[in-house]
Amino acid sequence: MKLPVIKHLTSFIEENDQDYVLETIETLEALTEVPSLKDEELDVIGELISNMYGALEVDKMVKGGTPKKEALNTFMKRVLGAIDQ
């Protein structure tokens, strides 16, 4: 996951609507079923999907009253903590 990408997507959600991101996730998930995709291409799609889910999670925290910067930091600490285990 890339914090700058999640931050940008979170701003996009604030300016538009989370439905755009949800529909994009659905589209990308459908693309993963294409049998001719290479592993590298699947990795890129997976990274995009995970960043979008991350942005949705950060947006949820912000809508719950957490300041945006704190929500981003909390989310990334949680991700890094999960990786370290």
Keywords for this entry:
mainly alpha, globular, 85 residues
Short description:
It is built from four helices and no strands. Helix 1 packs across helix 3 and helix 2 packs antiparallel against helix 3.
Walk me through this protein's architecture.
The protein is mainly α. 81% of the residues lie in helices and 0% in strands. It has helices at residues 3-15, 18-31, 39-63, 68-84. The chain is globular. The two termini are 17 Å apart.
Structural class by SSE content: mainly alpha
Low-confidence stretches: none
The CA-CA distance between the termini, in Å, is 17 Å
Total helical elements: 4
Percent of residues in helical segments? over 70%
Any idea what the radius of gyration is?
14 Å
> What's the average pLDDT?
93
Strand content: under 5%
The helix-strand sequence is HHHH
What's the story with the biggest beta sheet?
none
Strand tally is 0
Globally, the shape reads globular
Outline the secondary-structure elements.
Layout: H1 3-15, H2 18-31, H3 39-63, H4 68-84
